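User: Predict the structure for this protein chain, please.
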Amino acid sequence: MIAGVWSELTTNSAVKVTLKSLRAVTDPAHHYFSGHGAERVWPAALVLANHLSDNYAGQPEWSKVVELGAGTGLPSFVMSRSGCPSATVTDVPWLVPLMEFNIQANFESDDCCRPSAMPLRWGSDVDAKKVMHHIGGAPDIVIAADIIYRREDFDALISTLTTLGARKVVMAVTERGGVVADFMHRLELEGWDLEANMVFMGAEQAVILEVTPTWTPIDGMPNAEEVFVAPKRRMGRSPNNSESEGRRQRPRLTRSVPCQ
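Assistant: Here is the predicted structure, written as structure tokens:
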């Protein structure tokens, strides 16, 4: 199948992230793949790839990576090119072949750091646990670019993040009508710690979200009914704090940095 459709897809060899040249295979006209993830490499993916390269790539503690809504998978490829031995790009089932095209375009078949592609539908514990079984437990880090644009996806996305049980979630997202701010507020109400930084991409802006669970993940238990052990109360809050969750202020962006 790959050989048959390769010439009709668009291969962009000009995508450069830091010093790592990568090729992106896309389907702008949707001849074979539906959905926004097949169209192009979105600016937020470049922002995330640069952020990962500067802060996470090549560090052993982040050796198991899962990317949600990966599309072309460029952020994961940056991690793999830096020596990450286990990067798994995931998306809806019909985009798995596109992710495989992109893996083939950037990695030799015998590359020990070659990523893998799997379907992962948000809200599906079955899909999430299959990914966890494939990588041998919970990922160290979950990454995603530009996946926050519909409020109706919040429940399914947070459910999947909880099931995967990573120690860190890193996203690059573009604000659209307050949706990102609402998602950040929802995460805080659900008991996640987060830091948000604005990054400028020329005339556009993206937000880097660094999200950490405030409970203890149980690693190596992909088939467990309970993936997390919840604390008795939120970390960092006084037990005498009677502030209502519904009255808490939304998180603010902490600083602005340019995108290199």
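The chain is about 25% helix and 25% strand.
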